[in-house]
Amino acid sequence: MEAQPERAPRAAFISARIWNDGTTDLTDVVARIGDFAEGTAGIYPSRIHTENLNIQGPLPGGAFALTHVGGTMGLADATRTFPSIPAGEYIPVYWLVTYPDLDVNDKSVTGNIKPNDDLYLFYDIWVQAEEGSTVRNADIRRRATMRSCIAAMANKIFPNTANKVPQEYQNLLQKFAPEWSNIQNDGTAGTSVVTEGIWYDLGNVNKGFDNTGDLVPDQNAWLQPVGNPKLFDPSAFRLARTYALIIVKLKGGGEKVITARDQLYFSNLPDNTGVVGLVRYDFLPLKSNATSTMTPYQMAASGFDNEKYNGDYGASVGTLTSPDTPVSLDKTVDRGSAVAGDTLNYTIDFTNDGVEGIGNPALGIPLVVQEAIPANTTYLGGSAAAGNILPAGVNAYNIFYSTDGGVSWSATEPANAADVTNIQWWLTEKFAAAASGTVTFSVEIDDPLSDVALIRNTAGLSFGNTTPFLEDDAITLITGTLVISGTVFEDTGVGTGGVYGDGIINGTEPGIENVSVSLYFDANGSGTLDADDVLVATVDSGANGTYSFGSLPAGDYLVVVDANDSDIPTGYTATNATTRSVTITSANS
Question: Strand locations in 403-491, DSSP E?
Answer without folding.
Answer: 422-427, 436-445, 454-463, 470-478, 482-487
